[in-house]
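Intended use. Records like the one below are meant for learning the mapping from a protein sequence to its folded structure. Do not use them to infer anything beyond what is encoded.
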Amino acid sequence: MPIASNPTSPLRQRFRPLWWLAICYVLIGAITRIALLFMAGSGVPHHPLYWAYAFGVGLVYDLIVFGYVAWPLVLYLWLMPQRAYVSRAGQWALYALGAILLFGLMFVGASELVFWGEFGTRFNFIAVDYLVYTTEVIGNIRESYPLGTWISLLALATLAIVWFSRRGLRASDGGTRFLQRGKVVLVWLLITVITAVAFKGTYKDRTDNAYVNELSGNGIYEFFAAFRSSHLDYSRFYRTLPDDEAFKRVRELVKTPEATYVNDDPRDLTREIRHEGPEKHLNVVLISVESLSADFLKEFGDKRGITPNLDALIGQSMFFDHLYANGTRTVRGLEALSLSVPPTPGDSIVKAHNNENLLSVADIFNDRGYQSDFVYGGYGYFDNMNYYFSHNGYRTVDRNDIGKNDVIHHENVWGVADEDLYTLALKQMDEAHAQGKPFFLHIMTTSNHRPFTVPANRVPQKNGTREAAVAYTDWSIADFIKRAQAKPYFDDTVFVITADHCASSAGRTSVPINRYHIPLWIYAPKHIAPQRVSRQMAQVDIMPTVLGLLNFSYRSRFFGADLFELEPGRERAFPATYEKLGYLHGDVLTVLEPQRKLEQLRPNFDNGDAVPNTPIDQGQVDDATAYYQVAAFLFKHGLMVKRPEDSTPVK
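Structure written out for the chain above:
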């Protein structure tokens, strides 16, 4: 590998290995970008301007990041005394350090390919989030990929590259002094600080194609940018309205015909929801299925026939076909289903500090004598689920509650197979019924998650594939309902089946709306007549709609609405990422972004593409702003907590 002509300056001799590392890193960046370009497929149009942008801007970010990743080598070249540096031991130490850095950079590049394959993006907040749960994440990688083989190949490639380019790592020093070398390090430090302050990850987002913008970035840079934005304060980073105006607008937006505000406090969203006639204290089983995209169903065009039972259930249920998820992570679905609130930027409320004693859906059931359980087949410490649910009205039941002698048909790093999870759920249902209590169960599944391993002899699809996981999800739900039919409480149980989020979040736009489309079944043969509901619906509306079907009268500060009480034309949804906050109303999608930016689009609901909405509908921008601003304000200031008077019966 050619490095440079023979330098004569002692300082140039000493710091020559930096050129070796720079060339290696730039080549790794280019090769990674080429691989990601192929993986993006048709997502990136075959246009030289897109390619030039991705590789040109990408080179700039690679060079910026090189300033950071080269620091171990910079410090070695500075601190190593001249005599030790040019010794045989010093030379081997330099080879070893170069090999370690090279292996680490190639490992990051390979990791980016895996991450892109899963999420269609460079490292982002998900990667940061997963670092907290190394057991599950490393276990998932080990069960999903031949990790040992990959590491061995990377190690061999590292050794080969170091051997054939060893001239670039030659330890040579014609007589430099410590202070001389320190001047170079000082300049390096200044450049590092300047680039850290002057550049932001969002500067690359200048094209109309999200894939191109992602390719233009650098995985290491994006990772640390996501780390810094994990706790985004809405009022600091996003467009705002005067607080009084935002609250006034939200009070109008969440008001529905069956609701009455309990007071005239302009910042209090507490409403009394009233329904005529007696309440139906039926059991409710809410199943949030891992990654159940609507497009897995035959109903929405899938040709593989992997959901025959769920497809058949459509005709037996109240089925909602225009439902949109809050986000792209499980915690966002859990947040929407338990709190009925738009997503807050950065961390989900499920994982945030001071998330205890919030007014939750479980509280509504608990006030009526229900046993409310959150049932999960893995270990509920993951994503802070057990802490959150146990401090917000739910009893938590997880992998720890499965006895040593209980049958487990299959398990992987995420938890037991769905059929074993449903066995655990049936046990809780049996116990509550035996105590004469109605029950509300929120069941969170795991089988439809990489590594996609399922019990043998359940489905014909190849084990370890997404198709097998979806088919098994379908089989296990049908099996659960079949087993529940033999129970004395079946006729008085409502099954609510939906998804936490879609299986993929990638698209050509920042918020591809087709990647938020999820299905919803409400199945109770003795109580709810089958029908098709084609109105636009938000994930936050699911439980208020269920409470409406039960004829509950209660106090609420939920942002969601009973869809059957919401007047036509007022439907909206909140599709968001960890920092891009979407507001879908009709055929217009408004997206609020950090640095108080916004874009307004007309999305294609089939493929997720979008075109700008011109002129911008300022009313929808203000509605979106008000919803997110008020939600963030209420949580930040402790105003989502359950109050004693929230349990006051509503007559």
